[in-house]
């Protein structure tokens, strides 16, 4: 298990303690500086680290290593060794973390809780390095302990430890993923130990039958009021709403709530555009109609046509008015055959019945039938401008829908 860290990276420029800002990063620097009395070599190591002379750092269990550029063209191979924890020590450390939720929460936030280090120390687990544990090594001829190259490596890794305390865990023998995997395993085992035995249960069909027999019936819904209760106070000035506006909205909301309680949830899935058409179809008055047209950005004639579609067919009628679709050809063929037979009896003149997608059109009479997604036929009449207007409620029988449009057209 090893990982490479990006490099070379310049460390902070000022102060020997500037390589780490967290207390655990500073603990690493303190362990380094307390391991020697050679202040000169430490100072040179800090300079090397600040100048970015430490190459990519590799962290492995028990050691951190990197190439450090010195005075010679070829960089030196420097490393620092740290004793790894034994398997029993790791077990104690993981139990210590799992015992307190705060320890795990801090580690998930990439923080080293001081309480965890204290708890580990009391259990005789050295998580943070001690000065006597750091063992530097370098290929340079310098006899210093540590030499300036190994010192530079220690200062450089301190910056990384500052942002990722799991580097300390990796140096002690186990990385982030392994630590969290073993903590999860401990938590699962604890839950299985403490969880009560699952009940034997009963078959789902029997449970449903029991529920259906013993569930009390809901009370009958009251008839919705024709008018909402009067508002106790007037709307605030500048709100753009009148008392009548709010009372109309209250009435509308009550009617929708009653509709939803009956199981009809179609109004819950309307777009803003569709809901504006729904409100307009409830005849709130010409002023509201005008405002709805303005706020939706729809042309007045088109909005009026959609409002009529809603009155005749609700949200499905709106869909039929706006979105043609391609139904089953066999359904369209059967409807065309039935309409042709009916028209032969209704008129002596030749019948021109044109089919396009879900629409059957009597071009000579300005009548069109549209098949909706609910398998019902929606009759429409053509105005002088060539626009199609919904003419009557939908019917599952295309001939009945034709008859309704025919009577509306004065045929």
Protein architecture, described:
The protein is an alpha+beta fold and about 400 residues long. It folds into 3 domains: about 5-190, no CATH class; about 240-320, no CATH class; about 325-410. Helix content is about 50%, strand content about 10%. It is built from 15 helices and 10 strands. The chain has helices at about 25-35, 40-50, 85-100, 100-110, 115-120, 150-165, 165-170, 175-195, 205-215, 245-260, 270-280, 285-295, 300-320, 330-345, 400-410; strands at about 5, 55-60, 65-70, 75-80, 135-140, 355, 360, 365-370, 375-380, 390. The strands form 2 sheets. Strands 1-2-3-4-5 form a 5-stranded antiparallel β-sheet. It has a 5-stranded antiparallel β-sheet with strand order 6-7-8-9-10. A hairpin with a 2-residue loop joins strand 2 and strand 3 (about 65-70). Helix 3 packs across helix 4 (about 100-110), helix 3 (about 85-100) crosses helix 8 (about 175-195) and helix 11 packs across helix 13 (about 300-320). The protein is elongated. Mean pLDDT is about 80; it is low at about 5-15.
Number of strands: 10
**What about the largest sheet?**
5 strands, antiparallel
Uncertain segments are 6-14
Kindly estimate the percentage of residues that lie in beta strands according to DSSP. 5-15%
Q: What general outline do the C-alpha atoms trace?
A: elongated
The strands making up the biggest β-sheet line up spatially as: 1-2-3-4-5
Q: Which secondary-structure class do the elements indicate? A: alpha+beta
Oligomer: single chain
- Rg over C-alpha atoms, rounded to the nearest angstrom: 40 Å
**Helix content bin:** 40-55%
Helix-strand pattern = EHHEEEHHHEHHHHHHHHHEEEEEH
Distance between the termini: 88 Å
Q: What integer is the average pLDDT?
A: 82
Number of domains: 3
* Count of helical regions: 15
């Amino acid at each position: 298990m090893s990982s490479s860290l990006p490099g070379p990276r310049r460390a902070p420029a000022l102060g020997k303690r500037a390589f780490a800002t967290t207390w655990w990063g500073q603990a690493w620097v303190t362990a380094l500086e307390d391991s020697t009395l050679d202040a000169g070599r430490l100072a040179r190591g800090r300079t090397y680290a600040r100048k970015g002379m430490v190459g990519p750092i590799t962290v492995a269990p028990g050691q951190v290593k990197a190439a450090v550029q010195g005075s010679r063209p070829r960089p030196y191979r420097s490393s620092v060794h740290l004793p790894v924890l034994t398997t029993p020590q790791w077990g104690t450390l993981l139990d210590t973390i799992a015992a307190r939720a705060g320890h795990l929460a801090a580690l998930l936030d990439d923080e080293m809780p001081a309480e965890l280090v204290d708890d580990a120390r009391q259990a005789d687990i050295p998580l943070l390095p001690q000065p006597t544990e750091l063992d530097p090594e370098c290929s340079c001829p310098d006899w210093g302990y540590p030499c300036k190259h190994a010192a530079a490596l220690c200062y450089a890794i301190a910056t990384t430890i500052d942002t990722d305390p799991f580097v300390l865990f990796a140096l002690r023998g186990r990385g982030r993923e392994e630590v969290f995997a073993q903590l999860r395993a401990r938590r699962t085992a604890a839950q299985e130990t403490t969880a009560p035995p699952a009940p034997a249960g009963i078959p789902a069909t029997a449970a449903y039958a029991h529920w259906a027999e013993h569930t009390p019936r809901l009370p009958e819904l009251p008839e919705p009021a024709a008018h909402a209760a009067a508002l106790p106070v007037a709307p605030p000035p500048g709100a753009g709403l009148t008392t009548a506006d709010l009372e109309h909205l209250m009435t509308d909301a009550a009617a929708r709530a009653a509709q939803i309680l009956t199981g009809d949830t179609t109004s819950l899935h309307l777009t803003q555009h569709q809901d504006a058409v729904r409100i307009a179809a409830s005849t709130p008055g010409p002023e509201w109609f005008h405002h709805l047209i303005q706020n939706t950005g729809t042309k007045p004639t088109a909005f009026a046509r959609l409002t009529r579609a809603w009155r005749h067919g609700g949200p499905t009628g709106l869909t039929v008015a706006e979105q043609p679709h391609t139904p089953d050809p066999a359904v369209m063929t059967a409807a065309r055959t039935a309409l042709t037979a009916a028209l032969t009896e209704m008129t002596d003149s030749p019948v021109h019945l044109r089919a396009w997608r879900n629409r059957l059109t009597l071009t000579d009479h300005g009548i069109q039938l549209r098949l909706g997604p609910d398998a019902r036929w929606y009759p429409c009449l053509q105005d002088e401008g060539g626009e199609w207007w919904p003419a009557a409620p939908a019917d599952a029988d295309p001939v009945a829908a034709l008859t309704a449009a025919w009577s509306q057209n004065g045929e």
